[in-house]
UniProtKB/TrEMBL annotation:
Keyword set, alphabetical order: Membrane, Transmembrane, Transmembrane helix
Record-linked InterPro entries: Cyt_oxidase_maturation_cbb3
Record flagged with keyword Cell division: no
Protein's name according to its UniProt entry: Cbb3-type cytochrome oxidase assembly protein CcoS
């Protein structure tokens, strides 16, 4: 039973360390993306795929 308490305390300590590292990275601006929004409008056309032409042709009289 004491092993469970040791493992639980170690896992909580590791989780807190990773949370502090994440908060530090966010505050330093590591996740800020200032380049993509400025060029996104240039590549919008590439995201739209062309519609295939229908294979059934309608005859007009």
């Amino acid at each position: 039973m004491s092993v469970i308490y040791i493992l639980l305390s170690i896992s909580i300590i590791i989780a807190v360390v990773f949370f502090i590292a994440f908060i530090t990275a966010v505050r330093k601006g590591q996740f800020d993306d200032s380049y993509t929004p400025s060029v996104r409008m240039l590549f919008d056309d590439e995201l739209v795929k062309k519609q295939p032409k229908p294979s059934i042709k309608i005859k007009k009289d």
